[in-house]
Amino acid sequence: MRKQHARFAAVAVTVVGSMILVPSHAQAGLTYITDFAKNDNMQATLQANFPSGLFAPVNGLAGKFNITTDANGNNFEVLGGAGSFTVAIGVAGVTDVYTLMTAYAPGNGATLATVEFIGSAGADQTFTLINGVDTRDFYQGGFANTLNGTTSQNAFTIFGQGGGGGGGAHGGFVGTYVMDEQHFALNAAFANQTLTSMVYTYTGGGGTPLVQGITVATPDATAVPEPASFAMMGIGAVVALGVAVRRSQIISRT
User: Fold this and answer.
1) Per-residue exposure over 217-227, b if at least 16 CB sit within 10 Å of its own CB, e if not
2) Which DSSP state fits 249?
3) Domain boundary assignment for the chain
4) What is the architecture of the domain spanning 28-219?
5) d(Cα 112, Cα 107) in Å, to the nearest integer?
6) Distance from C-alpha of 60 to C-alpha of 170, rounded to nearest angstrom
7) Hey, is 162 helix, strand or coil?
8) Rounded distance, CA 54 to CA 145, Å?
9) Each residue of 147-195: pLDDT tens digit?
10) Are 66 and 32 in contact (CB under 8 A)?
11) Do 99 and 180 contact (CB within 8 A), yes or no?
12) Are 136 and 147 in contact (CB under 8 A)?
C-alpha cells in the first residue's frame, strides 16, 4: 500500500510542476505611431465603415493599429503627386514594422512607392512597394486588386457605398472596399539602434499611396504568461493536488 501511495504523490508533483513551468510564448512589444501628418478622413472620403481607434486585423500578420484623428478631423495621409513623406519614429530596437496602406488607382505591376527605414547609427533599409503584390486599390475595381498573401495581407473588407455614402473617392460607387496590412522585417543592424524615421518616396506614376496606420514592434524579454494563463495554471494545480491528497488519504486508511 505504501508503494501505491508514493506513486500517487509522485504523479501529483509531476502534474503540478508541469502546469507551473510551461513557458508562455514571447510577446512582441507594439508601439503605435499616431502623430504622422494626416490630410483626409477615411470614413468621409473612402468608406464610412472603415475602422477607427484600436484595430487588430484578423490575418497571418502580427500588427495592431491605433487609428487616431487629428484636430482637423483627419485620420490618414494621401500622398498626392510626387515627392517624399517622412514619419518620425524614435523607438529603439525595432525588429518589425507594420503598416496599413492602400492606394488610389494603382496600375498593376507598377511601383507605388519605396519605404526607407533609417537608424540612429547608420542602419538603412529600403523596400519597394509593387502594385498587385505589396499594395492594391482600396476599391476593388479596374486597378490592381491582388496581394502576395505573405508580407501583405488583407486587414479589413466591407461591401457598400464609398465616400460615406455621399460621394468622395470613386464617386461613392457601390462595391468592395479594403484596408491592407504590410509587414517589413528589419535587418539585424537595427537591433542596437533607434529607428529614427521612415520615408515614403513616390512619383505619382504608379498611383497615389494612402497611409492609414503605422505600428512598430520590439522584442519583449519578459515573456511571462498572461494573467489568464496564470489563473488557469493555478486552478489546474490546485485541483490536481487536491485529488492526489484525497486519494492518498483513502489509500492510507485501507
Assistant:
1) bbeeeeeeeee
2) H
3) 2-23+224-253, 28-219
4) Sandwich (2.60)
5) 8
6) 30
7) strand
8) 26
9) 999 999 999 999 998 886 555 655 678 999 999 999 999 999 999 999 9
10) yes
11) no
12) yes
Cα separation of 33 and 127, whole Å? Answer: 19
Q: Exposure pattern of 124-154 as b/e (b: 16+ CB <10 Å)? A: ebebebbbbbbbbbbbbeebbbebeeebbbe
Asked if residue 90 lies in contact with residue 96, where contact means CB atoms within 8 angstroms, the answer is no
- Helix, strand or coil for residue 6? helix
pLDDT at position 164, please? 63
Instruction: State how far the Cα of 126 lies from the Cα of 13, in Å rounded to an integer.
Output: 53
Cell numbers for 244, please give them: 492526489
Question: What span, in angstroms and rounded, lies between the C-alpha atoms of 250 and 254?
Answer: 7
**What residues contact 142, with CB distance under 8 A and at least 6 apart?**
none
Distance CA 1, CA 246 (A): 15
On the CB side of 52, CA atoms within 13 Å amount to: 15
d(C-alpha 217, C-alpha 254), whole Å: 60
Query: What's the distance, Cα to Cα, between the start and end of the chain in Å?
Result: 8
Q: What is the pTM of this model?
A: 0.76
The answer on pLDDT for 114 being more than 60 is yes
The span from the CA of 114 to the CA of 199, in Å, is 8
Residue (of 39, 30, 31) closest to 212 by Cα position: 39
The DSSP code for 134 is T
Chain segment 47-78, per-residue pLDDT in tens:
999 999 999 999 999 889 999 999 999 999 99
